[in-house]
Amino acid sequence: MTLCRRGMPEFFRHYDPMYHPQDTLLLLDYPAPEFDRALEGIDAIYNYLACIDKEQSYLRQFPRGSVIRSLRNYHTQYEQLFESVSELFMRNSK
Asked: Nearest 5 degrees, angle CA 80-CA 86-CA 59?
């Protein structure tokens, strides 16, 4: 998964903790469920990572094969979609 491969490094490349910690130059390449877009700067990063961690904890409750099977039933190239894996899984595993 390309989770955060572009957005996170780009954020830290321009992040200025001393003079502009509130600035959020954040281009995330994964839509994390429950992410609070009202947050700024490092608070946004922390919230984003917490949301990703929560999503991963949820998905780990299920066998990996059943998660992937459900996602492939939705779309054969689900990895290329700009959608939350956990939300896709919840919608398509019923």
From this structure: 115
- Contacts with 90 (C-beta within 8 Å, 6 or more apart), sequence order: none
What residue ranges do the domains of the chain occupy? 1-61, 62-94
pTM: 0.70
pLDDT bin (cut points 50, 70, 90) of residue 94 is low
Helix/strand/coil for 16: strand
Average pLDDT over residues 19-26: 62
Q: Helices in the chain by DSSP H: which ranges?
A: 7-14, 41-59, 64-74, 85-92
| 42-75 per-position pLDDT tens digit | 788 888 888 988 998 999 999 999 999 999 999 9
Q: What letters, b where the CB count within 10 A reaches 16 and e where it falls short, cover 30-40?
A: bebeebeeebe
